[in-house]
Amino acid sequence: MAFHPEPLGQAAIDGARKVIAVHLNYPSRAAQRGRTPAVPSYFLKPGTSLALHGAPLSRPRGVELLTVEGEVALVIGSPAHRVSPEDAWGHVAWVTAANDAGLADLRWPDKGSNLRSKGVDGITPIGPALLPAQELDPAALRVRMWINGELVQEDSTATLLFPFSQLIADLSRLMTLEPGDVILTGTPAGATVAGLGDLVEIEVDGAAVDGTAIDGTTVDGLILTTGRLGNTVTESAEGLEPFGALPRLSDADRIDAWGSPEAAGIAPGPPADTRPTSILTPELEAKLYAVGTATLSVQLRKRGMQNCHIEGLSPTKPGVKAVGSARTLRFIPAREDLFATHGGGFNAQKRAIDSLRPGDILIMDARGEKGSGTLGDVLALRAQVLGAAAVITDGGIRDFGPVSGMDIPAWGANPHPAVLGRRHVPWAVDETVACGGAAVQPGDVIVADDDGIVVIPAHLADEVAEAAVAQEREEAWVADRVAEGHPVDGLFPMNSAWRERYAADTAIGEAKP
């Protein structure tokens, strides 16, 4: 049984003094974007951006991409100022469907604020019906979007990163939410681009709470639905005069708008994987975790490798050890024209982070320049989500507190609040670099602990690891003898007599007391 409590009309749109939209709120969308926010963030839209069911979605002439996003919209019913999460839902009068559409071509000058890309007159249809919020479970709503009858989005508010009550309480800490204000609560995965002539439909539905009364009769299990909010994409006869920013798109923008390279027509499939092959096997990794970098350093020195130490860095998580295969990122000194061409968008820094695999350790060559950050919390989180073993930079680390609180360890020269562009241009991925005084090649084996960081050439890794295990076994046996009261002279290092005793005690390869 479907129930449409109240049609949404022009009065509801005219009563919206504020339209507030949430950037990311569904895990499915956060996974697409490669980041999961710790707290909600928002942008404001003018009330004139609202439109009704049936109104055209107008795309200005010269604009290529009109993005469409199905969302649950909340309409505030009573003033909310400094309300608690427990009381917040009581200030919501209505729930409806919304299309948080936008012009991707105009996102570039107002990133974050989305003022021009999502503030266009009539770009945000809502409706067609208002559902009584207090008759609904806010954690049990469903939002769906269709384009020309094909379902492209579906998700439940049970999955939200930030429940509706948290959004309302958070916003009300600093501003008064007034009756008629609209909150757009985020879109799930599947947001995409609609072309000219496409019919975009969005519906929100959910079960009424038990005890809902209809015409004086209590009805349980009733499904309340907004009905389908339908709007067709049209092209405006007007273009954009050159008084300000004009449409501009990169391939990265197109991929972001469409949701994938294939959908955007950028590439028929993923590019060839040119990342270096890791030589780490579970057995080799276990050996390296079992020995210290001090021991590995000795074994490298015995093989003529004196300069395999990344020096002068401190860990974000003291006491944590990391073993992994080197991936590399090189920065060059900041230069304004080069940063303009290489610093924005999906630059080398982001490409390096986004290409990490489980067990990789990203080595950043920042030339030892400490005057800006080379890693921040969002990129560290992305590395963690992808399963990287660590990130190591001989530059600064921004957001040092949040990065230190993550599971993934990082090593850096120092905390620094400045952004990358102050001192660096991200330049190249997976080539030989210098970090902390050491040369590092993609595929080298990296071991980092409280003693330091060593770089093991891939062709020596098995040999060095085996010898390091044997050395630590021997040193453990020596330590037991010292604990028994023996002097170190002749024992450390062992003379021939002690060597014979050690050989006898460890005939089967296991140290004995």
From TrEMBL:
GO terms assigned for molecular function: hydrolase activity
Key words of the record: Hydrolase, Metal-binding
Domain of life (superkingdom): Bacteria
InterPro entries, sorted: Fumarylacetoacetase-like_C, Fumarylacetoacetase_C_sf, RraA/RraA-like, RraA/RraA-like_sf
Fumarylacetoacetase-like C-terminal domain: residues covered: 18-206
PANTHER family cross-referenced by the UniProt entry: ACYLPYRUVASE (PTHR11820), FUMARYLACETOACETATE HYDROLASE FAMILY PROTEIN (AFU_ORTHOLOGUE AFUA_1G02370)-RELATED (PTHR11820:SF112)
NCBIfam families for the chain: PRK08245.1 (NF006093), PRK12764.1 (NF009399)
Protein name: Fumarylacetoacetate hydrolase family protein
Native source organism of the sequence: Arthrobacter horti
